[in-house]
Amino acid sequence: MATTTIADPALLDSAKEAWTDEYSQAQMVLTRDVLDVASALNRALGVGYSVVKQLPGSPDLDAAYRRARRWFGKSLSDGVYLLRVTLRHDLGVDTEPRFEQTRIQMLITLDSARDDLARLLAAERVQATGPVVGGR
To answer: Which pLDDT band holds residue 9 (cuts at 50, 70, 90)?
Structure first.
């Protein structure tokens, strides 16, 4: 059994608002390649937000916590790493010749993991609340 504490929803929402403000400002100044990575990371953070919000109602808390740790510790962490490396490449600090192919492959991997997790979370929401009847 997982021994952890559920995040304070107000604190979580406050952090989400702060990130949204920062991301909005960054969109105006980032170069195209960096913005592509930041946008993918933003979408991944949105799914991470859903992971945390759904934790309290999860039918299997141990599995939900393992999934959250895996998401934040692997996929999302890889996305943050990709953003850091892309920024360094954009600034000319790192100039790996095959960086573009690596960046594209890592973006595809992050987007795929995000889509898979989003589908799983949506299915769990339907299971927990029941199917939507009549489109509402």
So the answer is: confident
| Tens of pLDDT, residues 51-61 | 998 888 888 88
pLDDT tens across 48-103, in order?
999 998 888 888 889 999 999 999 999 999 999 999 999 999 999 987 889 999 99
Long-range contacts of 77-82 (CB under 8 A, 24+ apart): 78/106, 78/109, 78/110, 79/37, 79/40, 79/41, 79/44, 79/106, 79/110, 80/41, 82/37, 82/41, 82/106, 82/107, 82/110
